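Structure in, sequence out. Go:
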């Protein structure tokens, strides 16, 4: 039976630049895979013909992937960085913080292409077109989704539907493992389809929004911090932005992630520093200034305290 999706279920973590072609991301239908990456990528089939995926990747050299995509719907939320591709000759660009949908009524050639030094952190779903039609037959409320599969290719931005991005961020930051993780991925993936269908139909949600719990507050805070690692907002400003009290914000973040927001920021900045140093494109002082350190000596001290060795050892 022909595969419905060229992307294989896989999970890899590269702590140094490694060839994507060797990672087992795509099946043999991919015509060309060029480039290397640092970071993680995972894809899992959560229900037949429904695949969840996410990644956080740095591309030290130019990336190019030539492939053929089947008739399907792909929903993507970019948490950080950039992503773009050409499908049937048309350039599609995914904006930071936005949720986009790529609907194909039939198989089409696609090319993913990014410059060296770029990066992306995103989460998304891939749904087979035939499976989506079956779901819509079973539940008429999902009929609006079929409009995304009409007339060749449709590339759509759903910037007014913030719930979509929130659901995909919850998938990305899932705290579960094993069977619970799979159940969580399946339920939230289906919730994405329901939310998108409701958005396309123009009907408001029928259920009143529940008050945000600690997990939601912590995830929202982490999203903002990740997007502003170099110049993060203070706890007071962040609490005001999320419309919660500062004490509530601090307590929620510490409870969910087991560390303060300041500790989290230091950790993420050090991880970013290590990635940049291992790319070999910048000197230690350049990385220090890029991360907002006015004095490279302070960066050296912080790096050694975090990793146990000076930043120069990464080169």
């Amino acid at each position: 039976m022909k595969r419905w999706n060229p992307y294989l279920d896989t999970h890899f973590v590269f702590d140094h630049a490694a060839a994507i072609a060797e990672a087992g991301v795509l099946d043999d239908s991919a015509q060309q895979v060029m480039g290397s990456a640092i970071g993680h990528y995972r894809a899992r089939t959560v229900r037949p013909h429904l695949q969840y995926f996410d990644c956080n990747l740095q591309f030290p050299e130019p990336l190019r992937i030539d492939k053929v995509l089947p008739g399907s719907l792909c929903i993507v939320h970019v948490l950080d960085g950039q992503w773009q591709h050409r499908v049937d000759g048309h350039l599609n660009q995914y904006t930071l913080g936005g949720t986009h949908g790529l609907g194909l009524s039939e198989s089409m050639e696609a090319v993913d292409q990014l410059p060296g030094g770029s990066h992306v952190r995103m989460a998304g779903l891939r749904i087979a077109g035939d499976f989506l039609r079956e779901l819509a037959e079973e539940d008429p409320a999902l009929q609006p989704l079929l409009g995304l599969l009409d007339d060749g290719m449709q590339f759509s931005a759903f910037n007014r539907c913030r719930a979509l991005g929130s659901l995909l961020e919850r998938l990305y930051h899932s705290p579960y493992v094993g069977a619970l993780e799979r159940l969580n991925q399946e339920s939230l993936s289906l919730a994405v389809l329901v939310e998108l269908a409701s958005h396309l139909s123009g009907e408001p949600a029928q259920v009143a929004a529940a008050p945000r719990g600690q997990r939601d507050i912590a995830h929202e805070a982490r999203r903002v911090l990740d997007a502003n690692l170099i110049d993060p907002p203070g706890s007071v400003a962040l609490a005001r932005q999320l419309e919660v009290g500062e004490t509530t914000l601090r307590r929620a973040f510490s409870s969910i992630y087991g560390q303060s927001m300041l500790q989290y920021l230091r950790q993420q900045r050090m991880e970013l520093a290590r990635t940049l140093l291992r790319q070999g494109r910048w000197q230690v002082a350049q990385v220090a200034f890029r991360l907002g350190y006015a004095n490279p000596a302070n960066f050296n001290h912080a790096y050694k305290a975090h990793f146990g060795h000076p930043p120069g050892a990464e080169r």
